[in-house]
Amino acid sequence: xxxxxxxxxxxxxSRKGDKRGRTVxxxxxxxxxDAAASLHVSSPRPPELVWGVxxxxxxxxxxxxxxxxxxxxxxxxxxxxxxxxxxxxxxVVSHPYTVAEVEADPxxxxxxxxxxxxxxxxxxxxxxxxxxxxxxHTDEKYWHLHGYxxxxxxxxxxxxxxxxxxxxxxxxxAGPAEGEDDKAMHRRSDRAYKGAxxxxxNAYFESVGVPAGLTRIxxxxxxxxxxxxxxxxxxxxxxxxxxxKADALRATVQQQAREFxxxxxxxxxxxxxxxxxxxxxxxxxxxxxxxDAARRAxxxxxxxxxxxxAEARAREAAEKAQQERREAELATTAAxxxxxxxxxxxGLWDGLRHxxxxxxxxxxxxxxVEQWQKVxAEARAREAASNSQRQALAATVKELRxxxxxxxxxxxxxxxxxxxxEPATPEFAxxxxxxxx
Length: 437
Known about the structure:
About 65% of the residues lie in helices and about 10% in strands.
């Protein structure tokens, strides 16, 4: 029984290569296990062809078509396809069994052989004639397949086979919706990409995962308890067995019908009626088995939908918790900055600088602030003038006092001289110096 879940990944490549330097040549060389392109594999083994042509033939076909491919440009002209355009499509699918398990257990090998047949059928339905080869690698841990395709489009546009890229380009080509800017449009195109890829994974699950008895998503991605995931896995296995039983019964009925026809040729209607009754009984049993398989499939898909909804809720909760953590960190930083009056003023001003509301408040208060500043400046000017006048008056008073002192001293000296050299007679003496009668 498979202890795991499905894995499928689609990716396109160009001759120029991506940021990691993976060009078309490098990708095909890695698939061939060329020495320069398979350093990540400890003991490389040549790939095993499962379906289609060799990898060398794929590379020759790709390179020849890439040289001759043309794309239409303005003016009805054509030009060569750029080396940056994706011209090779690839798909990798992996089974949860390890290579060691498959090689050691014939029952598990039978399971993966059925799984491989389902994958080849699904890949051919998906990509049609563009699919050129499917190979198996057995030199890594898990059993897996690689599919490689060359676009049949005259311009070799590999994105046309990628459901996510098709959905994204459709949104971008339609342009922004009413009231939507380019940034919002690109977010919507990203959501379209993810939605298309979920649908692609669901289609793969219905075509390959269900018949192979694999679950859609593993327990780790959805944080399921192991018991619940084992229950879901057992349900997937039961569905696989029911479908296998229905297929086997259908084959048996067809074989019995052929044998009956060959034995009863030329015999009477009694045998024909008996055969028809037996065929009707077998058809009823097969219909019952198909109905049971359909119910199990519906239950499995319902479990997938519930798991995806739970995953979305968990992701939203994680994003909300992360946002709250960031806000708490910002609040903590702000609190540290606001410790002390200087920090408070700096924090207030920084907040005002980055706030549209604060900018409006500043604009409304600025005339009042400027008036207050003018009044303060005039008061300071008046105070300065008053101080200057007071200082000048003090200097004048000081000078007058000094002058008065000098005059008093001169008067006293003059009186002494008059008394010594020219004594005053009573009749001519000042009134203040005359003797009383």
